[in-house]
Amino acid sequence: MPGTFRSLAGGEPIGVFALSGPVDPVRLEAGLDVLRSWGHPVVEAANVRTRGPVRYLAGGDRERLNGLLGLLDRGVRVAIAARGGYGVMRLAGELPEGRLAREGACLVGFSDLTPLLVRLASAGHPQVHGPVVASLPDDQESAERLRRILMGELGPGDVLMAFGPGEVVRPGRVFGVLLGGNLTMLAASVGTPAEADFAGTILALEDINEPIYRIDRLLTQLRLSGRLDGVKALIYGDLSDFEPADRVRLRELLLEAVPNVPVVAGLPFGHGRRNDPFLLGGVVELDTAAGTLVWGG
Q: φ, ψ for residue 86 (rounded to 5)?
């Protein structure tokens, strides 16, 4: 069921958490400066600046989990991931999904955070797929759109993304709850406590630096596992890392993965320079004739 997004109240803090990899301190500070410019207190999880004994994690499993729990204990409801990387799947089954839902928490991020965002959003608790703190300075437009979403300045009726005829792979117009995120993480979650059901949704996918045969394998895994059954439309993110021949092949793979529903590819979200934020768990309208993805239909 779709949920209702609750924007930041005046003076409400913004949390920063690190469930995945360690963050470069220079990039962290630059991102924190962007957050501070929004006029809300910024609260860091205890492990945000930690580099654990495992070099690709921001502390041990319990340390990373306690960092997020500590933010909740301090009254933080809206929190942005410091960065992606890897680590959230190690916590599958231990993540405080029930508490996050009860307290109306809204997490912001993408990439490695995908399974947690999707689980919460699919249960009726909208989350935001968008830039992490370390990437906020990279694209001012995406950062500003994130600020507007969190502050309640964008809402139902507003255009989340616009695209041209060249991005339309299969035309159509459809309403549905928007879910999805990183393709690798969604495929990795099949058969785990982090798995989600996408039937009846508009599914967003993105990835980067994956050879086309791996994209083929990931989409095939989702298709054969039944995770794509009943999907109402599919949108795919930035294609900047694809060669021309691979872009053609990707379009063929997307058509194969979800027959008879609208498909759009090359939208400005994901691991490219642009990572326009959008709501997961809210109703949207995809209209290929108008070239828009609209919040709330």
A: -150, 145
